[in-house]
């Protein structure tokens, strides 16, 4: 990996300013509940746009916004310490889904089985896809 020169960093300033002007939310650590709600709305919009396409131009931005949301939730939202697989199992039960119904997200029914049995962890792409599918924050699967 090459090191950025001072001129490279100077060129990032105007680009960052332009990105901030066009963003519907401040792209920095979440400051309060109102900022949090706006960031979650933005994260959901990005999830809708990016979908499961890891090569999408906005995937990196989605990762950053998701990290801001996760960080805020860890500091401010009382979340029960629940295993992501248990959360998935509960959501599946609530919607009367079978492992085969989620095979497209995980690649196969056997991968879903391994997740539910604790033999495999949910990766970031899968967490994003599950969040979109179930209408929840990706943080519940990480």
SSE topology:
Blueprint (H helix, E strand, L loop, with lengths): L5 H17 L10 H18 L8 H18 L7 H11 L8 H4 L2 H8 L7 H11 L8
Structural features, described:
This protein has 142 residues and is mainly α. The protein has two domains: 6-76, no CATH class; 84-141, Orthogonal Bundle (434 Repressor (Amino-terminal Domain)), CATH 1.10.260. The protein is built from seven helices and no strands. Helix 2 packs antiparallel against helix 3. The radius of gyration is 17 Å and the shape is globular. The chain starts with 5 loop residues before the first helix and ends in an 8-residue tail after the last helix. The model has no long low-confidence stretch (mean pLDDT 88).
Provide a short characterization of the protein structure.
The chain is mainly alpha-helical.
**Mean pLDDT, all residues:** 88
Question: Low-confidence runs (pLDDT<50, min 5 residues)?
Answer: none
Computed structural class: mainly alpha
Task: Tell me the β content.
Answer: under 5%
> N-to-C SSE series?
HHHHHHH
How many H/I helical runs? 7
The Cα radius of gyration reads 17 Å
How many beta-strand runs?
0
Q: How many structurally independent domains? A: 2
Overall form: globular
Helix content: 55-70%
Distance between the termini: 28 Å
How can the largest sheet be summarized?
Answer: none
């Amino acid at each position: 990996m090459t090191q950025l020169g001072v001129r490279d960093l100077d060129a990032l300033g105007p680009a960052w300013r332009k990105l901030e002007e066009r963003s519907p939310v401040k792209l920095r650590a979440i400051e309060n509940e109102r900022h949090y709600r706006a960031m979650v709305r933005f994260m959901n919009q990005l999830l809708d746009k990016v979908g499961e396409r890891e090569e999408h131009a906005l995937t990196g931005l989605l990762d950053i916004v998701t990290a801001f949301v996760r960080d805020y939730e860890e500091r401010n939202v009382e979340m029960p310490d629940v295993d992501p697989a248990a959360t998935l199992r509960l959501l599946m039960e609530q919607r009367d889904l079978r492992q085969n119904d989620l095979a497209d997200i995980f690649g196969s029914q056997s991968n879903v089985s391994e997740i539910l049995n604790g033999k495999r962890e949910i990766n970031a792409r899968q967490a994003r896809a599950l969040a979109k599918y179930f209408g929840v924050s990706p943080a519940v699967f990480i």
